[in-house]
Every structure is written in structure tokens, then in C-alpha cells.
Amino acid sequence: MTFGLQDLAFYVITYGCQMNKHDSERVAGMLEAQGAYAVDSLEACDMVIFMTCCVREAADVRLYGQVSSLKNVALRKGSPLSKRLVAVGGCIGQRDGEELVRALPHVDVVFGTHNLASLPLLLHEAAQRGGHRVEVLDESSAFPTDLPTHREQPWAAWLPITIGCNNFCTYCIVPYVRGREKSRLLEDIAADAQRYVDAGVREITLLGQNVNSYGRDLYGEPRFADVLKAVDASGIERLRFATSHPKDLSDQVISQFATLRSLQPALHLPVQSGSDRVLEAMNRRYTRHHYLRLIDKLRTAVPDIALSTDVIVGFPGETQQDFEDTYSLIDQVGYNQVFTFIYSKREGTPAAKMEDNTPKEVVQQRFDRLVDLVQDHAFAANQPHLGRTVEVLIEGPSKRDEGLISGKSPKNQTVHAPVPAGLSAYDLAGKFATVKVDTARTWYLSGTLDPESIR
Length: 455
Description:
- By secondary structure, the protein is an alpha/beta fold.
- It is 34% helix and 21% strand.
- The chain has 15 helices and 19 strands.
- The strands form five sheets. The protein has a six-stranded parallel beta sheet, with helices on both faces.
- β16 and β17 (414-418) form a beta hairpin.
- It is globular.
């Protein structure tokens, strides 16, 4: 069914996690199926769609600020519309619904996480009849994978295996805006992976709020290890996944790192805190000891596995000893990368009601001290690669210098190298090549690309 969006230019702005990025690809796919076309700036678009995240307060601030500033952006010359259509979807759309149009009257369409498929009709009605269109459903009847997609890169694909979350960590809004966990059939996941490989995709990233609990709702027990085996069997060259909850990371899944050809030696395993007291208050349902045992098992399976994590500093009631426990855990594990966050209160979550008397300046001091430690370990983790050769999946030119390629190593490290003579970084995107590393910084490696290795 078509909805009169032909020849309209759209621009999608995405905040947040990989699931939001995947949803944005579905939005682009649906609009292109309606005859609309993508542009890369607000000034050039007839319709702007914000795919939002509400995990941290900063995302709310960015959205409200950017939508408000649209009043000052002129509609493109030659637009068939009398005004630019503004749509807000994703987690903030799901959470706020009608409140968004009351706070931001020039928003035309609000849709939630469960009704991506409604967007073309909502935009059509707003264009034809004016006024606001708000549709937020409590649950979805289909997975986003049933919708058309326009992948950001032809050689890489997001592949959702679950939607929603059952964990209800006390600081997290996700279960309230994404709904309860639902798993896709294993056969459907395997079929999608095979279609991607047949279409030339070289890297697949499996997505879920907690991939480790995949299948519990369908099969009575988690079967994520079976998903990994099935996708590996497709012939995909690189396989990754996110996000992995420590309480459900099984020995069967850990063993796949040592046995599956395509599974890359990198894992993001959010710890959030190193204090058992804080972990209990967060409702994380594992202890410091359990988490460290998982790290030992992972390094037994793959001694040089690259580990990354998330940490929240300043959770309500965090004491100095709680922070020291976190600091010591980060120091003990020695992560390749740590994403550090100062606690952000989210209304509607249990943690928002917890008493918190820690001065902001104390929290900031703890945060800064932890960041220094994280950077020291990240630098140290990259040093063993000096003088070695790494295989890189090239993503295109470096954002700062088109004369350099930028890509990812198997450990998900960013790697730069000069573009070989006579070649273009754009033409090399999606190809593999080996780079001999001669510089190892905190957040990247750089070296010389072997032109003979390009494939």
C-alpha cells in the first residue's frame, strides 16, 4: 500500500543503542519503499524522523533542543509541502506520547517502539490533513525484521534475535519502553543470516537487550549458543553480538568463542558496578565473584579476548567503599574499553525514588579518577599489537582524513592506515586487508596496509 510520500526527501537522526540504529534502517527502508528518498541534512529534507533513546537524560536534552531549533531551519526550495514534517519515534516517543506534542507543538507525528510500520501512514495523514498524529502501542504484533530495510552499509548487517527485556534493572527504563522479551524463531534467524551472506554481507551483529536469554520464552530454556552455531554455519566471515547480561552468560556460550570460526574474540559484558551492595540495589542478579569467574572462563577459552564493559558511577547511595570496589574490579580485569556513565535519574524507574545524598562534585571526582584508570588499561591493551599484523574490515575513510582508511580489527579496535596509491578509501569499504601496526594509541592502532592482502 502506498501513502503519497513519493519524491519527498527524508532525514533520519538516530540516538542511542544498536537496536535504535537497526530501527532507523527499517524506517529508511519503509520510506524508500513509498518512493521517498534519503538526504543527509536537515536543510535538504521535507521530513525529519528522530529515532530516540531515553536511557540517559542527555538524550532527552538533545532531542528537545534539536526539535526546538527546527523552527529556524527553512524548508528546502521546491518542497511540495507547506511545512517540514517532524516525527519522533523510538523510546522517547513510546514513553512520552501525547506529552511530546504538548511540549513541542511543531512535532507532527509521534510513534513508539512497537509500531514502526505505522510511520508512512501517520506521515501521509499529517501531510494531507495537518494536525498531530500520535500512535503508541503497548506491544508489537510483529518483529521489525518483517519490515523493509535500508542497511547503512551493504557489507554489514544488524540481525535482531529478541526484542524487549525482562530484567528490570532498577536504573533502566528499557523494559518499560521496549516491552517484555520476545524471541524470534531460530529457523527465521538462520534464514535471515543466510540471505545476508548470499547478498554479500561480511559481518553480522546479533542484537537483543539480553542475547544470552534468547529462546527462554519459546523453548523453555536459553538457546543462544544454538543461534551462534546456526549463524556461523551460514558462512558469515565475522560474527558479533550485543548485549550480553552476565547473569545469563552460560558455559555453552563461552565455549563458542573457542570453537566457532566466525565469532570474533571480543565481548561486551556490562558490569555496572563492582560492589555487591550496589549490584543488589541495581537488581543485576549476580555478584562480583560471579562476574569475575565469568572473566576467568572467557580468558581460559580465549586468552587474548578483548573485553569491554559499562560502568555507572554515582548510583543512588553509592559510598566511597562501593566506588573503590568498582575501581578495583576495573583494575583487576584490565578491559580494552570501558564506557563510563554518571548515574542519570529516569522517572518511572525504582532507582529514581532512592535517596541520594552524594554531592555532585564527589561523583564527578570518582568519575574522573575511573576514566584515568580506563585510559591507562586501554593504552596497555593495545601495546602488544605493535609490530604485528592485524586483519581489518575496512569501513571507509577516516572522518578526519580521507587519505586514511578506517576499519575494525577482530578485537573491534579501530585501525587506521594510509590508502595505497591509486586506490580510494571509499572503494575499499567492505573489504578485508592486513595492516602492520607501527603505532598503538589509547583508542586506535595505525600502520601500513598491504595492497596484496585486499580481498
